Amino acid sequence: MEMTPIQCQQARLARDTRYDGLFFTAVKTTGIYCRSICPAPAPKEKNVEYFPTAVAAANAGYRPCLRCRPDSAPGSPAWLGKNATLNRALRLIDEGALTEQPLTHLADRLGITERYLRQLFVDEVGLSPKSYSLYQQCLLAKKLLHDTCLPVTDVAMACGFNSIRRFNDCFKQQFFLTPSQIRKQQKVTADAGKGIALSLAYRPPYNWAYLHQFFASRLIPGLEWLDEQSYGRTFQYDECVGRFTATHHEEKSSFRVEIYLTDLKYLPRVIKTIRRCLDLDADSSLIEQQLQQAMNGEELDMAGVRLPGIWSPFEAGIRAILGQQVSVKAARNLVGRFVAFNPNNANDYCYFPAPEQVSQFDLDLLGMPQRRRETLWQFSAFAVDNPLDDGKSLLALPGIGPWTVDYLRMRGLSDPDIFLVSDLGVKKALAMIPEPIDDSLAAPWRSYLTLYLWSTLS
């Protein structure tokens, strides 16, 4: 969303929460940058400079406000849509790609040279990939220092720093403050690392009622849980297992999230995935303008539409294969049986199987056609060694068609521009509309058009 200085001025003076995270206000006289909703007295316009992202403000030499805490703002989509390779690189870096591997490894994953990757970041983001990664690590560390009781050493390790000295130096360089100056004065308990609670903000409106209904119709007991204001689930990465519960607080435009995991180094990836699954970084007002155009100008019956994500592309692919040509209820039952195969399930919690486990399962117990079972095996074997964001490679697998790939991309990768035109529910919804619609008018938000059409059936 490109905003002019006049629009930014109006939004910051109004402290409009709908613009929180879409731009940041830097004050020249104090050297501090803030969220648009900062409660501090509004500075004079002549002393203000606007930036599309927190990274851009920091790169210009400003430090974050300790009152409004820019680290807690909803994510800005400032770079989205400019370059597919850049978008994928940003996603991988946000998941910790450069804290675990060198830049050359990331470039190889993207299928480009290291030099081109550096140039891409300089041209589009204004700084190097490593500088971007370090700033994101420090932003997360700042949030953990504010919101949790984690010891500083645990915060450093969770954010990808291998030494406390390196963490302190980098943090001070980025924010002109030490971690101890950020840390709230609170007692750190011995078991602080077992549970982490923090707040994740969004830009209103947020249609929690629809998201709640969507999750409820596809809920897998033991893997997921749901109540009136909360959604939670389990997850696993390699040897790390964990779970989270996100509780909606509409009055605060945020979710209070409690996270439990056995290895803190996965925390950045977990937080990023929770934000994606709950679609906390969407700009609903902008999206709904596009949907209204596609729907022939008709006023939408649902405000604050969000794209409910699935924890991983692999899980989304399995759910899509199991959901081929069956009802939502039948697909849910099949997914529940598939999850029950996981030998790592224990007590009250179940975990979605990893790709390498599927070859050991007796899929005959699913009661599905042989070709569908073979598709599950082949897809799982492919997922062991290959990324699942290449649609052409997936389509080459037997039993994988355009609907399956699109569903995987829409919910497993949260691709915002997927229109499931071949979906039975979408076809039924389109047949109920008096005039034909032009889905191209909803681009690049056609995934939300798909959701909206589904909602008209309920």
Automatic annotation (TrEMBL):
It catalyses: Hydrolysis of alkylated DNA, releasing 3-methyladenine, 3-methylguanine, 7-methylguanine and 7-methyladenine. Keywords: Activator, DNA damage, DNA repair, DNA-binding, Metal-binding, Methyltransferase, Transcription, Transcription regulation, Transferase, Zinc. InterPro entries: Ada-like_dom_sf, Ada_DNA_repair_Zn-bd, AlkA_N, AlkA_N_sf, Alkylbase_DNA_Glycosylase/TA, DNA_glycosylase, HhH-GPD_domain, HhH_base_excis_C. One of its GO terms (cellular component) is cytoplasm. Its EC number is 3.2.2.21. GO terms for molecular function: alkylated DNA binding; DNA-3-methyladenine glycosylase activity; DNA-7-methylguanine glycosylase activity; DNA-binding transcription factor activity; methyltransferase activity; sequence-specific DNA binding; zinc ion binding. The keyword DNA-binding applies. Pfam families: Ada_Zn_binding (PF02805), AlkA_N (PF06029), HTH_18 (PF12833). Its cofactor is Zn(2+). Residues 87-185 form the HTH araC/xylS-type domain. It is an enzyme of class 3 (hydrolase). This is DNA-3-methyladenine glycosylase II. It comes from Photobacterium chitinilyticum.
